[in-house]
C-alpha cells in the first residue's frame, strides 16, 4: 500500500467513526462497535485514533455529547431529563455529574446563569451603552486562503466537519503548531431553515498554497477588509446570544454598516485540551469602508 492510498484509507475509516458518533449520540457507543465501523483491530485502533486526533475515542464521545447538551440548555426549553436522554446519558444523575465536572455548574443552573445569559440580559436592558461590558474592535483583515470542508445543516453540528478536516490534515502530517482554525458562516440561522444552513470548517496553514488538495477538502478565500471583532469566552454552544447582541445592540449604535459577505469565527484554543468555559472565540462581522 503506497503512502497516498494509506492516508486515504485511514481518513475514510476514521471519518466513518466520527460520523457515527455525531449521528448517534443518544445511542450506546460501544468502543468495539466503533472499531468494527473503522474496520480496524479492536486492540490497536484506539491508539491510531488517539494518535491522529489527539484525544481518545471516549473523550470525543464525551465532548460531542456535552456540546449538544449545552446547546439545548442555552437555546431551547427542552426538559433537562429529556436532554440527558437525547445525549446518551443513562439517567439525570449521571448527566448532572458529568456536565458539572466540565461546565462548572449543574445543567439547571447553567441554563439560568451560563455565559449566554450575559448577552440575553444586555439585549433586554434599556439604555445599554454601545459596547456594554464587551469590547468590539475594528480590524483590517488581510485576505486568507483556507483549506475547508463544507457543512450543511445546524451550525451546532459543524464540529463534525472540523473533526473530519483535522483528521484529513493529521494523516497527511499537516498539523502545524501555529495552524489557525476558522469557521465561515454563509447563512443566517434566523432567516433560513436548519437544513438550508451552509458553513465551512477551515484551517489556515503557512503552507496552504502548496498543499495538494482532494475532496472533500477545497480552498476557500476569506476576502480582505474591515471587520468588527468580538472576543467571546465560553462554550461554543452559547454563541448565538453573542451574535444577537453584536447585530442587535452593538451594530445599530456603532455608526457602522455591515458589508455583504459571510461572518467568520476564529477559535483561539483547542476544545480537545480546554474546558468549555475557557474557550476563546473571535467573531468577525464584515463592515463597509
UniProtKB/TrEMBL annotation:
Gene3D superfamilies: Homeodomain-like, Regulatory factor, effector binding domain
SMART domains: AraC_E_bind, HTH_ARAC
Record bears the keyword Transcription regulation: yes
Domain HTH araC/xylS-type: 15-113
Pfam families the record matches: GyrI-like, HTH_18
Signal peptide: none
UniProt feature coiled coil, ranges: none
InterPro entries: AraC_E-bd, GyrI-like, Homeodomain-like_sf, HTH_AraC, Reg_factor_effector_dom_sf, SmbC-like, Tscrpt_reg_AraC-type_HTH
Gene Ontology molecular function: DNA-binding transcription factor activity; sequence-specific DNA binding
Alphabetized UniProt keyword annotations: DNA-binding, Transcription, Transcription regulation
Protein name: GyrI-like domain-containing protein
Species per Swiss-Prot/TrEMBL record: Thalassospira lohafexi
Amino acid at each position: 500500500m503506497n503512502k497516498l492510498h494509506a492516508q486515504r484509507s485511514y481518513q475514510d475509516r476514521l471519518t466513518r467513526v466520527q460520523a457515527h458518533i455525531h449521528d448517534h449520540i443518544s445511542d450506546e457507543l460501544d468502543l468495539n462497535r466503533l472499531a468494527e465501523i473503522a474496520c480496524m483491530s479492536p486492540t490497536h485502533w484506539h491508539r491510531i485514533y488517539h494518535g491522529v486526533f489527539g484525544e481518545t475515542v471516549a473523550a470525543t464521545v464525551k465532548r460531542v455529547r456535552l456540546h449538544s447538551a449545552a446547546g439545548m440548555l442555552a437555546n431551547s426549553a427542552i426538559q433537562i431529563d429529556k436532554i440527558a436522554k437525547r445525549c446518551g446519558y443513562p439517567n439525570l444523575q449521571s448527566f448532572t455529574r458529568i456536565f458539572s465536572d466540565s461546565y462548572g455548574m449543574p445543567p439547571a443552573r447553567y441554563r439560568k446563569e451560563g455565559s449566554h445569559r450575559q448577552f440575553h440580559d444586555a439585549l433586554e436592558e434599556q439604555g445599554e451603552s454601545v459596547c456594554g461590558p464587551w469590547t468590539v474592535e475594528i480590524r483590517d483583515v488581510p485576505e486568507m486562503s483556507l483549506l475547508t470542508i463544507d457543512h450543511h445543516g445546524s451550525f451546532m453540528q459543524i464540529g463534525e466537519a472540523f473533526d473530519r478536516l483535522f483528521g484529513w490534515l493529521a494523516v497527511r502530517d499537516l498539523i502545524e503548531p501555529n495552524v489557525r482554525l476558522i469557521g465561515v458562516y454563509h447563512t443566517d440561522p434566523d432567516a433560513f431553515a436548519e437544513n438550508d444552513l451552509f458553513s465551512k470548517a477551515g484551517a489556515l496553514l503557512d503552507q496552504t498554497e502548496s498543499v495538494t488538495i482532494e475532496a472533500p477538502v477545497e480552498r476557500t478565500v476569506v476576502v480582505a477588509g474591515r471587520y468588527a471583532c468580538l472576543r467571546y469566552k465560553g462554550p461554543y454552544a452559547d454563541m448565538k446570544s453573542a451574535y444577537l447582541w453584536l447585530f442587535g445592540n452593538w451594530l445599530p449604535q456603532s455608526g457602522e454598516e455591515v458589508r455583504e459577505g459571510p461572518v467568520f469565527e476564529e477559535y483561539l484554543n483547542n476544545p480537545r485540551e480546554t474546558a468549555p468555559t475557557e474557550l476563546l472565540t473571535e467573531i468577525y462581522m464584515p463592515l463597509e469602508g
